[in-house]
Design brief:
382 residues; 2 domains; ten-stranded mixed β-sheet; two-stranded antiparallel sheet; elongated
Length: 382
C-alpha cells in the first residue's frame, strides 16, 4: 500500500462519521455562499444602459410625501435635463394576490417616458396604442410570462396606498431592461380616479450625460430649496440603495451570520479530526517506531483534514453554483430577487474557507501527536 492509499483508507475507516462530517462542511459552505449571493443582490442594484443617466427626485420630507405636478416645467428648464416624467408608485394588489404583488405599477406620462427607458424594446404600434388609450398600460415580459398574459387582456388592481382601483388594458409588452416586471400606465388615469389632485409620487429625470448627473442633481435640489415642496434628487443607484438602508445594516447582519457559520464549521471539523486521530494513536506510535518522522505524520493528518474540508467544499459550493443556475429564483422568491448569481469570487471565498478549515482542524491533532511518545501512544488504546 502506498502513502496516498494509506491516507484514503484511514479517512474511510469510519464511513458514517466521514459522511456526516463532509455533509456538515457542505451544508455550512452552501449556507455561506447563499448568504453572500443574497448580500450582493441586495446591495448592488442591477445597472442597465440608462441607469447612469437617470435621476430620481422625491420629497425631501419622505418618500411617501407626494410632490406637486407644477414642478415639471421648472425641472424641464434646468440645464442638462433631457427628459422628465412623473413616476408614481401605485402599489396595488393584482387579482389573486392576497398580501403581496411581486411587480410594481407606475403611473407615468407615456409621451415623456420612452426616453427615460431607452433600453426598453417596445414595438412602435404598441407604443402608439398605449398613447391613445388612457386606461391602457405596458407590461414587462417577465410578468407576462409568469401570469400568461397577452395584449388586450385586462389587469385589475386593488388600491392599497390610494383610495381607488385600477382596471388596465394591456396595450404593449416591453423587454430588454434590467427589470422586465413592471407595469406602466397613464398618470392622467390615476389623477382622474382621485379627482385630479395634481400630485405625483416622484419625478424621473434624464441627464444629458453621466458627467452632467452631479450638476443636474445639485441644480434640482437648489431649484426647490426653501419652497413648500423641497425635494431630494439623487442618482438611481443611490435611490435604490436607500431602500436597502431601511432594512438596517444588512451587511453587518449577514456578515455576522457568516462568521458564526464559519466558526461552527471550524468546531465540527476540529472535533472530527481530533476523534479520528485519537482512535489511531497506536498506529501512529507504531509508525514512529518504524522510523517515520514527525513531518511525515503531520502530512498524513493534514492530508486527511484537507481532503475532508475540500470534499465538503466541492459538494457545498459546487452544489450552490449548480442549483442557483438551474432554478428560477424570481418565482422561488416571489420576485424578491431577479438574479442569484454565484460569482467566481464567491466560489474562491468558499474554497479558501475550506483550505483554512483543513489547516486549522489539523493543528490540534498534530500538536498532540508531536507530544506523544511511542510508549504513550502504544498504551493509549490498550
Amino acid at each position: 500500500m502506498n502513502l496516498s492509499g494509506f491516507v484514503i483508507r484511514n479517512a474511510f475507516r469510519n464511513r458514517r462519521r466521514l459522511l456526516l462530517s463532509v455533509s456538515s462542511v457542505a451544508a455550512s459552505l452552501f449556507l455561506l455562499i447563499t448568504l453572500q449571493v443574497a448580500l450582493r443582490e441586495l446591495t448592488n442594484p442591477i445597472n442597465d444602459e440608462g441607469s447612469s443617466l437617470r435621476i430620481i427626485v422625491r420629497s425631501k420630507v419622505s418618500l411617501a410625501q407626494p410632490l406637486p405636478a407644477r414642478q415639471m416645467p421648472i425641472l424641464e428648464r434646468i440645464p442638462g435635463v433631457v427628459a422628465v416624467s412623473p413616476f408614481t408608485f401605485f402599489g396595488g394588489l393584482y387579482k389573486g394576490d392576497e398580501k403581496f404583488t411581486s411587480f410594481a405599477q407606475f403611473a407615468v406620462d407615456p409621451a415623456r417616458t420612452l426616453p427615460l427607458i431607452s433600453d426598453a424594446k417596445l414595438p412602435r404600434a404598441q407604443y402608439e396604442a398605449w398613447l391613445a388609450d388612457r386606461t391602457s398600460c405596458i407590461v414587462g415580459q417577465m410578468t407576462v410570462d409568469r401570469y400568461g398574459l397577452k395584449i388586450g387582456d385586462r389587469m385589475p388592481f386593488t388600491g392599497q396606498l390610494y383610495p381607488c382601483d385600477l382596471d388596465l388594458k394591456i396595450a404593449g409588452i416591453y423587454h430588454g431592461t434590467a427589470d422586465d416586471r413592471n407595469v406602466m400606465f397613464h398618470q392622467k388615469y390615476l389623477d382622474e380616479l382621485q379627482g385630479n389632485p395634481g400630485m405625483v409620487g416622484t419625478w424621473w429625470v434624464l441627464a444629458a450625460s453621466a458627467a452632467d448627473v452631479p450638476f443636474v442633481t445639485d441644480r434640482i435640489n437648489k431649484a426647490f430649496a426653501n419652497s413648500s415642496a423641497e425635494v431630494r434628487a439623487e442618482s438611481e443607484r443611490a435611490f435604490v440603495l436607500g431602500f436597502v438602508s431601511m432594512w438596517a445594516n444588512i451587511k453587518t447582519l449577514i456578515g455576522g451570520i457568516s462568521i458564526v457559520v464559519v466558526f461552527a464549521l471550524l468546531l465540527v471539523t476540529v472535533s472530527t479530526m481530533s476523534m479520528a486521530i485519537r482512535e489511531r494513536f497506536r498506529e501512529l506510535a507504531i509508525l514512529k517506531a518504524l522510523g517515520f518522522r514527525r513531518r511525515e505524520l503531520f502530512a498524513f493528518i493534514l492530508a486527511e483534514s484537507f481532503g475532508l474540508a475540500m470534499g465538503g467544499a466541492v459538494l457545498g459550493a459546487g452544489g450552490a453554483w449548480v442549483l442557483f443556475r438551474s432554478i428560477n429564483i424570481q418565482n422561488l422568491t416571489n420576485g424578491l430577487f431577479l438574479m442569484f448569481e454565484v460569482t467566481p469570487q464567491m466560489l474562491g471565498l468558499a474554497f479558501s474557507v475550506a483550505v483554512l478549515l483543513g489547516v486549522l482542524a489539523a493543528l490540534a491533532p498534530m500538536w498532540t501527536v508531536a507530544r506523544t511518545s511511542v510508549v504513550q501512544g502504544l498504551k493509549t488504546l490498550d
